[in-house]
Specification:
- The chain has one helix at about 5-20; strands at about 35, 40-45, 55-60, 65-75, 80-85, 85-90, 90, 95, 100-110, 120-130, 135-145, 150-155, 160, 165-175, 180-185, 190, 195-200, 200-205, 215, 220-225, 225-230, 235-240, 250, 255-270, 280, 285-290, 295-300, 300-305, 305-310, 315-320, 320-325, 330, 345, 365, 370-375, 380, 385-390, 395, 405.
- It is mainly beta.
- It has 2 domains: about 35-145, Sandwich (Immunoglobulin-like), CATH 2.60.40; about 145-445.
- A hairpin with a 2-residue loop joins strand 20 and strand 21 (about 225-230).
Length: about 475
């Protein structure tokens, strides 16, 4: 018996065994029906006139014989598109699903304009699946949102943007010197990949707890599964304030998903601008950056009731300037890379860290605030002799009060409502948080707001958020 014959014999035996395990018969029983992984495929919010992200569902055959789908059809087919088992089209026939197997159906949509309506308009359709004389359907739905698209747009005179329609920013939105851009309550700015807001003049963002100003990336829907793009950093660059910019104020404003957050470089001091800090932040959320969420270089910053959270290269960098942070939450549970910086990094604080600019050293007073999370809370750890003071602040690490740390709460867990396993990064506090009723009202300022970003009374709570009343 030759080796070739033996190999042929083995191959034939394996082939016969495999064939015996595969049932090639096609069922025609009306009771043998495919099963879909969902009865409604929700594509979420889609800007009209542009293609949506791709969504998908599965069609399963849970039976011991092949199911042949007589037809797979988009009922209307005007706005939705599909790909069935690797082929694109609006109608398919004779699609077979092998026993105990499944196929993917991918769906996209391009929705029509709503005629300039402010609110989204719901659009629905159906995918009808016919097999063995019966028809089942998967509902397709999406919310079409009209937007005002701006490409490399420059503000050269005083301009107001409002909540009538969201703005989708491509390339850049630039506020030129001498001009003021005012964002009215409820204004929404959605920035495309690599877009940024550059301010050489003045930015006034006038959000409220009922109608905050939103600045975020323009991608909606899920990255994968139930993980929303809303948690992904690096979707747009951020906001850059340049030398000569002044009078900038952001209130109840959310700046999220950036590459570099907010950068204010060489805007100077309050004394240069009539006693008003060149950058004031009130009840803002600066969250989720692939760099830092706030960098201030030789620029005075006043911040009240602000959340500054989640970044790998220090959450906040203060380098020179006079800074007053009260009722702020500086926190970090960043998950997209190793955390390499402190939560709060302080530069140019003494002759050992002198940057050679000849400008005054950093003067920072942080009060009634929480500094907690991954990484070192503060760098450098030794701030003795500097003009850096933490008064009535909560830290997770062990420590003791001295001339720079006054009536602080050490080795304390603020009990954030964060659930990393489910990708929930909520820095509000649980009801039994030790930060409740721990603030020193004597440290508040006339600019400290009564309510936080979400409209909850701040009361005596440390950090940016009050604790809602619970029964």
């Amino acid at each position: 018996m030759t080796l070739r014959f033996i190999l042929y014999t083995i191959a034939a035996a394996i082939g016969a065994a495999l064939c015996s395990c595969i049932e090639d018969g096609v069922t025609t029983s009306a009771s043998d029906q495919p099963v879909c992984s969902t009865d409604t495929l929700d594509l979420g919010l889609i800007f009209t006139g542009e293609g949506s992200p791709t969504h998908s569902f599965k069609i399963y055959n849970r039976h011991p014989k092949i199911i042949s789908l007589a037809s797979v059809t988009i009922r209307n087919g005007q706005y939705f598109r599909m790909n069935v088992d690797g082929f694109s089209g609006k109608e398919f026939s004779g699609v077979e699903i092998r026993p105990k197997d499944s196929i993917f159906v991918f769906v996209e949509a391009t929705l029509p304009s709503n005629g300039g309506q402010s609110l989204p308009v719901e659009i629905t359709d159906h995918i009808d699946i016919e097999a063995n004389g019966r028809t089942s359907s998967v509902v397709l739905r999406a919310d079409g949102q009209d937007v005002d698209r701006l490409h490399a747009h420059e503000i050269t005179a005083d301009t107001r943007m409002d909540a009538t329609l969201p703005y989708q920013i491509f390339d850049s939105l630039v506020v030129r010197s001498g001009a003021t851009l005012t964002l009215e309550p409820g204004t929404r700015l959605y920035f495309h990949d690599k877009a940024e807001l550059r301010v050489y003049g003045t930015l006034q963002s006038k959000g409220t707890s009922d109608a905050p100003v939103i600045m975020r990336g323009d991608r909606h829907g899920a990255v994968v599964g139930s993980i929303d793009f809303n948690i992904m950093p690096g979707q747009w660059r951020g906001i850059a304030f340049f030398n000569g910019s002044h009078g900038n104020s952001l209130a109840y404003t959310s700046v999220i998903n950036t590459s570099y957050g907010i950068v204010a470089d060489s805007l100077g001091s309050a004394s240069d601008h009539g006693g008003t800090a060149p950058l004031t932040l009130t009840a803002c959320r600066l969250h989720n950056s692939s760099g830092s969420v706030l960098t201030a270089i030789h620029t005075d910053v006043n911040a009240d009731a602000c959340e500054m959270s989640d970044a790998p290269w220090s959450v906040v960098n203060l380098h020179g300037g006079i800074h007053r942070l009260n009722r702020c939450t500086l926190a970090n549970t960043y998950i997209f890379s190793v955390v390499r910086g402190a939560i709060l990094t302080l530069g140019h604080i003494d002759d050992k860290s002198d940057d050679g600019s000849g400008l005054p050293y950093t003067d920072a007073l942080v009060t009634n605030s929480i500094i907690h999370g991954n990484g070192t809370p503060i760098f450098p750890a030794d701030i003795a002799g500097s003009a850096i003071t933490f008064n009535r602040c909560m830290f997770g690490l062990k420590g003791s009060d001295d001339e720079n740390f006054i009536q602080c709460l050490w080795e304390s867990d603020p009990l954030f409502a964060v659930d990393r396993a489910n990708y929930i990064f909520d820095y509000r506090l649980l009801p039994d948080s030790p930060a409740a009723d721990a603030a020193d009202l004597g440290l508040d300022t006339p600019t400290t707001p009564a309510t936080d970003f979400y409209g909850t009374a701040i009361g005596l709570t440390l950090g940016a958020f009050g604790i809602p009343v619970t029964e």
